[in-house]
Amino acid sequence: MTTPASPPPGVYHSRSRVTRTRLALAAAGLALVLLGYLIGRLQGGPDTPAAAVAAPPPVASSPAESAAPTAEPSPSASAPAPGGIDAYAVIQAETAAGQQGTQFQETEDEGGGQNIGWISNGDWLRFDEVEFGTEPATEVAVRVASDVDDGGGRIEIRLDSPANAPVGSVPVEDTGGWQEWQSRSADIEPTTGRHTVFITFARDDDAEFVNLNSFAFVH
């Protein structure tokens, strides 16, 4: 068998040089690509962060869900009845809503304050809205002082008009001085409901005869 002839040595050297040249060109091309990429990164600035994902809008709740629970309204309390003067409490004479012929003065009676004085025949005091309630009053008690020795006079209780007939009358006599206080009482016609009370004063002449500090009704 005939052995093929070997190529001359110069042929191997030529092929090796071509291969090295190709590799060098490929490396240079890759280097240029990398250099261009780096230049582009530097010119483009830092990476822009990804946009945040927008949160979905809140779901509006229905009025029934969002409204705060409302407490049941409590029943409204009934308005109290208009107040009046308690007929069975002590009523100070100086608190009269109206008067005729009388004057105030400092009192020396228990509790201090003022009393009504300079009282003579025909004078009166008026007390509005006096409440007797449903159980009738049958008596009146008065706190009086007098310095007369010729028979005294009367304190009369009239309802709703000073011209109406008295429902009761308390005799007044000398107590020993104009500031010597005593309690006196008398029966009255049974009285209920609410009335304007007139305290009227009666005497056979026009002389002053009594001081009055207070009064109260009794069942």
From TrEMBL:
Q: Which residue stretches does the UniProt record annotate as biased composition, category Low complexity?
A: 61-82
> CBM6 domain: from which residue to which, for each copy?
89-218
Q: What InterPro entries does the entry give?
A: CBM6, Cellulose-bd_IV, Galactose-bd-like_sf
Domain of life of the native organism: Bacteria
Q: What is a single molecular function from GO for this protein? A: carbohydrate binding
Q: Which CDD domains match?
A: CBM6_xylanase-like
Q: Does the keyword Lipoprotein apply?
A: no
Task: Print the keywords alphabetically.
Answer: Signal
Ranges for region Disordered: 50-83
Name under which the protein is recorded = CBM6 domain-containing protein
